[in-house]
Amino acid sequence: MDFVKRALNPIWQGIRYQGYRFFSYLSHRVPLRIGYWIGTLAGDFIYLTWKRHAANAVSNTRRVMGREADWRVVKEKARDSFRNYAKTLVDFLRFPHMSYKEIDRAILGREGLEHLDTARSAGKGVVVVTAHIGNWDIAGALLGHMKLPLHGVADKFEPERMNNLINGVREKHGIHILYLDTGSLRQIFTALKRNEIVLLLFDRPQPEDGVPVEFFGETAFLPPGPAAIAIKTGAALVVGYALRDPGDRTFSGRFEEPIEYKHLLTGDKETDIQRVTQEIVNRFEQVIRQHPDQWYMFREMWPRTARHNAEIKKRRLYGTRSLRRRLAERMPESEGAA
Q1: What is the pLDDT of residues 186-218, one digit of tens each?
Q2: Three-state secondary structure string covering the chain
């Protein structure tokens, strides 16, 4: 069986590569509104059929919006997150064909660039922490075209020519890619020592070895990397993101004020990493609360109890409005373990 998989793998990788090239070319040739319309339909289809991850999105959105939020609104926001993520995938397909002028026009709002200048003025580099929200590739490309020394940490795609196509485009737009391997940490330290910028995605849940933080009133486990790197190097910590504007034609980028974390340090490594990570989480809570439909978290961010799983399963029923009303009557909001 393993022999068959190894034999078929090059064929499958070739299909992926050619498929990406075809849809990338096609997505840039059709009008953007049509591409987004198709993406919206794809997002709805995935939400309706990809039940495990859709249930995760509903669960996560429930935590963000709070227990008082109407379940119908929660589900609508969760569905909208799939729609917006599908639009982000359309942007991802178009990315290899986008010129700097197109990227420049796409970023309508640019707030907080002075915070990057402030952060770099300390001379120890900047760790820009972002999340799976809005569109991180376009925001990174804009910084790259501003001639800022920017490094992005990313996974390596297979096959090699797929990686060259996708990450090669990021390099073309000024984002030097550091791959997640044994040497990436050393490269990050070197870049920060040169007072450069390192971009890190932050919000992937790590229940096994993550840092426990309070996230929307409950305990979640998030990566220790950004806090640990900043503490080790003395680099500035800045939260940044680019959100999709109403109408979908443009984005608004924003960089928050650098996180002051030196006063949080006690000398105990685990305690310090947890406290700094909590500060990062506090910044993200604000933007995610305002834009839950642009947070693409389809993993299980918070551990779910069996009771909560049962409720999510029932709340994910697709029936008539009367069916939903009867369901709500049987299961009062106060009983939900969300």
Answers
A1: 999 999 999 999 999 888 899 888 999 999 999
A2: CHHHHHHHHHHHHHHHHHHHHHHHHHHHHCCHHHHHHHHHHHHHHHHHHCHHHHHHHHHHHHHHHCCCCCHHHHHHHHHHHHHHHHHHHHHHHHHHHCCHHHHHHHEEEEECHHHHHHHHCCCCCEEEEECCEECHHHHHHHHHHCCCCEEEEECCCCCHHHHHHHHHHHHHCCEEEEECCCCHHHHHHHHHHCCCEEEEECCCCCCCCCEEEEECCEEEEECCHHHHHHHHHCCEEEEEEEEECCCCCCEEEEECCCCCCHHHCCCCHHHHHHHHHHHHHHHHHHHHHHCHHHECCCCCCCCCCHHHHHHHHHHCCCCCHHHHHHHHHHCCHHHCCC
